Amino acid sequence: MHTKRIIPCLDVKDGKVVKGVHFASLQDVGDPVALAKRYYEQGADELVFLDISATQEGRDTLQQVVEQVASQLFIPFTVGGGIRTLADIKRILRAGADKVSLNSAAVKDPQLIQKGAEMFGSQCIVVAIDAKQRKSKDGWNVVIHGGQIDTGIDVLDWIKTIRALGAGEILLTSMDADGTKQGFDLPLYKAVNEIVDIPVIASGGAGALAHFYDVFAKANVDAALAASLFHYEEIGLDECKHYLQERHIPMRILSNVMREEAILSHIDFDKQNGLVPAIVQDVHTKQVLMLAYMSKESLHITLTQGYACYYSRSRNALWLKGETSSHVQRIVEVRCDCDHDTLLLLVEQSGAACHTGATSCFYHLLKKQ
User: Are residues 287 and 140 part of one domain?
Assistant: First the structure.
């Protein structure tokens, strides 16, 4: 079973993080880069930044935020708001984002999804949907422009369309639940998961630890997103993850068997000129994916951030796995051998492990008996 993700969301307006209820009554929460760094250090799986002002000035400001965040964080993050063209997508990805989120622009020009997926890869294209229950209670409509315009498009029909166009992920927000802290809209997510096979991020309504359990256990979403709950530290990220793990929801939590300083002192880096080999194995398939090398610094980054970081001997530089391909490796376990000079990393691999596009680097069969 794949690990589930907890994703803090930062709504950005004029360079500040804001939060409201039902997309209104916005309040200033704080600096986006500082908040992002806090969540990164607390073990967030990913982050989402949404420019809710969507003015030209807002997009310029957000691009600066993206560049600052990308220089300090080593977890995937998605950026949305005011992205209307392929040039906008390219600009945000080049600034350092791993994915872009398309909402109103995708409704107005669905081909933007297909063109974006073809040019940058489906894994980079997230389609955000703001869903509002119809007065008849027989389904949900797609709402755009920050909750201002009801398109009349049925959410389930729209999801089938975007899936066919190449969307790699869905960020689905319940407008009815947004900001209420009364729980996720379980009927909405259950209905969506019955018709789609790409990851769904649930957004809107988180107010208690039990709400996260419900949306994972009862609606089977891939990720849960929250904002004010984390912004105001009503619930901690680590608290949320341990709560879910104790209830058998698979979470990415780095083992605390040994503290980091003890782990680093446990490894014999001096034996091999400051580097140790790291064998990387897929935690689900048990397939050996690759062999890489780690320095103390790269192991420190791996241990603290939960994503594999290696040392490239050819470039003499740190190498965060997936920094260009988005094929990151989430750490599940880190082990060492009996001589303390070789590491074994059990990871959850996103995409191909090999730069050739192969699942594993060990695809050349030399002999079989």
Answer: no
